[in-house]
């Protein structure tokens, strides 16, 4: 039996704005405590998936257990929970924080407090965590630790006088971080003699071990061979393996109060486990379950279709595989007149959508067509009933609609003052309603209420480009509000293309319609005939462009006899063909579907 005194345990997360150095710090802590030898220490151990590594973002919360011999001569067990930094995955931050007593708040000393610093630290405060401010990147000449300390005190309202100054990159200050964890964060306080009570923090599928469940023990002990009950799911399992990660998997016989580790049992699917559920002893259950979490709800939907219809079954299997480890990704079969069979998929946000699409294409070698992303609309019909609309193609007859409501968000944007004007203009154009404007040092902090549908396409990209990357952004959903929404249809060669239709606000319809037609005109290659491209609301055409006809022989352009040039042109044409879909008589290239939706304003 492992008997770890709770006084020697510290459970903590690292919270930060994206790119402020959370993963680099986590790796340093693992390295400094010898969790991995130098040879095993690959860059950014905690970001395990390839795509995460390439994009430099952390998606799945992971936990490692570190042994640390402190200056007081005692050995401590430090459980470090990594948390994702992007708004799409905010719910994963909240569930990791619920399993900890403390948080390290990492702020880039050259940049200062950003939108997600605030969002994440407020979550930590809401969870009653003890917070240790850490100023990272002090190796940079632009670092201004004193100014940033003052900013943390002013904006967040926590004491930053003894913030730890570090460079996660060079290693400066790492021993101070470890000491701060031990001396400044409280130990867990569970009752070892009470019935088992554990929080289900996360679960994922492993090819060798099956479903692995990550738990934080609150009271009692989780033992190998025990029969446990998942209280909300109302399911009983026998515990087969118990252990923890260093990040290597280390089996033990049991876990006691305050410990974070995993178990496996005969659990078939990740879907059988509910994050936030309470795990207890089947025979001797705890009286009160833990409060639990709200499940993560998909907020953005789009259709994913195989570019080659023969890949439909492969796509279904690949999606099933991805869902094993990502319960927040949902899909159901859909058929479209233009695209054939595919799936309607739900995501936590646009980044989540892009990551899933990329993984399907890369890991499973599929060629996909994604339709316009859509939010969830609530439609009240004239008979008083209410329906949820995930797909503009399913919109009921307008005569039967009494009211359409759309989801709204509350967005917080932090920006250097010089970009404020352009940002306010952008929010205004996207139907935003300003609710607050204040200053954080020399930077403006503005709060806007915005319709989610105006944000999903390209708001973040636009914000980044008009602020040269300096503005930061965070949001959460607030409620549904009625809006004057209409269905914008795109007709190519007089045929409606469902995959390009979307709901838009009436005031935006013309601008969007025109922009879509202009984009498509450039994206659709010339054919042997003239192709009209039209945008319409109901039967009314609001914009029109034309793709002119071309001459048949593409090589005719290459006057003279340069054979390599001819070959190149033909190859290019062939490549283009592979990625096209036929709509009636017209070939539309795959990238048109997403590209057409990105507005340049
Ligand atoms: N100069 C300097 N660069 C650093 C330091 N710490 C991290 N970086 C760099 O900052 C960038 C972001 O670091 P990450 O650790 O990936 O940031 P993160 O906060 O984990 O980002 P997400 O995982 O995407 O949330 C990387 O290019 C790091 O090499 C530091 O102390 N000094």
From TrEMBL:
Which of the seven top EC classes does this enzyme belong to?
Answer: hydrolase
**What Pfam families does the record tag this protein with?**
EFG_C, GTP_EFTU, GTP_EFTU_D2, LepA_C
Cellular compartment(s): Cell membrane
Which of UniProt's keywords are assigned here?
Cell membrane, GTP-binding, Hydrolase, Membrane, Nucleotide-binding, Protein biosynthesis
Q: How does it sit in the membrane?
A: Peripheral membrane protein
Keyword Cytoplasm attributed:
no
Q: Recorded E.C. number(s)?
A: 3.6.5.n1
Annotated binding of GTP, by residue:
19-24, 136-139
Catalytic function, reaction form: GTP + H2O = GDP + phosphate + H(+)
What is the top-level taxon of the source organism? Bacteria
Mind telling me which CDD domains this protein's record contains? EF4_II, EF4_III, LepA, lepA_C
The segment(s) forming the Tr-type G domain are 7-189
Q: Which Gene3D superfamilies match?
A: 3.30.70.240, Elongation factor 4, C-terminal domain (3.30.70.2570), Elongation Factor G (Translational Gtpase), domain 3 (3.30.70.870), P-loop containing nucleotide triphosphate hydrolases (3.40.50.300), Translation factors (2.40.30.10)
HAMAP family membership: LepA
Among PANTHER family, the record links this protein to:
TRANSLATION FACTOR GUF1 HOMOLOG, CHLOROPLASTIC, TRANSLATION FACTOR GUF1-RELATED
Q: Which family does it belong to?
A: Belongs to the TRAFAC class translation factor GTPase superfamily. Classic translation factor GTPase family. LepA subfamily.
- Function (record text): Required for accurate and efficient protein synthesis under certain stress conditions. May act as a fidelity factor of the translation reaction, by catalyzing a one-codon backward translocation of tRNAs on improperly translocated ribosomes. Back-translocation proceeds from a post-translocation (POST) complex to a pre-translocation (PRE) complex, thus giving elongation factor G a second chance to translocate the tRNAs correctly. Binds to ribosomes in a GTP-dependent manner.
Output the NCBIfam families linked to this UniProt entry. lepA (TIGR01393), small_GTP (TIGR00231)
Q: What is this protein called?
A: Elongation factor 4
Tell me what gene encodes this: lepA
